Amino acid sequence: MAISLLGIWICGKTANDMGVHDHGGIVWDEIAGYLLTMLWVPLTWMNIVLGFVLFRLFDILKPWPINLLDRHVKGGFGIMVDDIIAGLMAALCLFLINDLI
């Protein structure tokens, strides 16, 4: 939670300083989203890799509601929120996969 709250300020300030919203060099949001993905599962090699793949899929494909938030929410919160939701969606998938195995 602290990483996400700090990220809102860091990402917003960096984006303002660079003059670009969500520049590819701003990766704090991806780190926070991936850490969220891994929060509720055992840290095995399979989970680490699968969690990363799932997070990146949600982050790149941006299914609903991620795409909606990505388009309409601006500033530091906007930079962070799509990756937080992608992290939660990936976490749910990873949790269900672990529960089935």
Summarize the structure.
This protein has 101 residues and is mostly helical. It is 76% helix and 0% strand.
Describe the model.
The chain has 101 residues and is mainly alpha-helical. Helix 2 packs parallel to helix 5. The model has no long low-confidence stretch (mean pLDDT 94). The protein has one domain. It contains five helices and no strands.
Which helices and strands occur, and which strands form pairs?
Elements: H1 2-18, H2 28-37, H3 45-61, H4 66-72, H5 75-100
Helix pairs in contact: 1-2, 1-5, 2-3, 2-5, 3-5, 4-5
State Rg. 14 Å
Give the termini separation: 29 Å
Give the biggest sheet.
none
Instruction: Name the average pLDDT.
Output: 94
Could you spell the SSE succession in H and E letters?
HHHHH
Low-confidence stretches: none
Oligomerization state: single chain
The fraction of residues assigned to DSSP E strands is: under 5%
Distinct helical segment count: 5
Shape: elongated
How many beta strands in the DSSP annotation?
Answer: 0
By secondary-structure content and strand pairing, the structural class works out as mainly alpha
Q: What is the total number of structural domains?
A: 1
The helical percent reads over 70%
